[in-house]
Write a structure and sequence with these properties.
Number of domains: 1
Largest sheet: 6 strands, mixed
Distance between the termini: 60 Å
Number of strands: 12
Number of helices: 7
Oligomer: single chain
Structural class: alpha/beta
Shape: globular
Length: 260
């Protein structure tokens, strides 16, 4: 059955199985998902896509003296990647000043000096982030799996952020929107092929065992054609540890609810 073998090969090599697995998991956990939405890249005037946009919301009834009723939304721009080649990441200290500025500007946590701002996982997680990466036998940045993932996630976020929620109750206005926080994510099938070295001390590579962040200064052209550069942290998540990541987002939500 050569045709059937070819079809099976297409299924295995496409990566769509992992994509579907991620989508189904998030749906089971109460997330609203939008699979492979296309959008027009303003810089190249070409259609592009991202694997998944996922949103969840947490509602609060009006508590007089504390805040209005409504929902806090977290929206994730997710690239799903099946990692088949060894990949090394170079880690160094996180730019805490830039990370704090991002949290202050893009979440309800607008104050620098309070304990709730420091609870956002961009600030409360490890003080080290990945800044460089390389894969086995891959030439050219455009061929790197991680490079493609970060570029697709950030490009989609840049052009799609601020759009209408995909949650029906928010769209209809039945639940008022208090705030929406949007973040880029690279979700990997496994970290079994991930290794780390320290930039400041060229040590022996060690396996990456925990979810981590990739720090990027991203240059792009906005919808008006202006050149811009922004600081981003991308959460790099092992699907085997996605439960841990969702707990981190719950903690973010608890901290942000204090200020909406």
């Amino acid at each position: 059955m050569p045709i059937l073998d070819e079809i099976k090969k297409i299924v295995v090599e496409s990566g769509n199985n992992f994509h579907c697995q991620v989508t189904n998991f998030l749906k089971e956990k109460g997330w609203q998902t939008l699979v492979s939405p296309y959008y027009m890249d303003g810089a190249t005037n070409k259609p592009r896509e991202i694997d998944l946009i996922a949103e969840n919301h947490w509602s609060r009834e009006r508590d007089f003296g504390r805040g209005n009723s409504g929902a806090l939304i977290i929206k994730l721009f997710i690239e799903c990647k099946y990692i088949s080649q060894p990949t090394v990441f170079w880690f160094s200290k996180k730019d805490i000043g830039a990370a704090t500025k991002w949290v202050n500007s893009n979440t309800p946590l607008e104050s620098i000096d309070n304990k709730y701002t420091q609870k956002h996982h961009y600030l409360s997680s490890s003080g080290e982030v990945a800044k460089l990466f390389a894969s086995k036998n891959i030439r050219g940045a455009e061929n790197e799996v991680i490079y493609r993932a970060l570029n697709q996630s950030l490009n989609a976020m840049v052009y799609l952020r601020g759009r209408e929620s995909i949650i029906p109750d928010i769209q209809s206005g039945r639940i008022p929107e208090l705030a929406s926080v949007e973040m880029p994510v690279i979700l990997c099938n496994s970290f079994s092929n991930f290794y780390r070295v320290e930039m400041d001390n060229q040590s022996t590579p060690e396996p990456v065992n925990e979810n981590f962040q990739l720090e990027v200064n991203y240059a792009y052209r906005d919808l008006q054609g202006n050149h811009r550069s922004e600081y981003f942290l991308l959460d790099v998540v092992d699907f085997n540890k996605i439960e841990d990541y969702l707990k981190v987002l719950e903690a973010d939500k608890d901290a942000m609810f204090v200020f909406v």
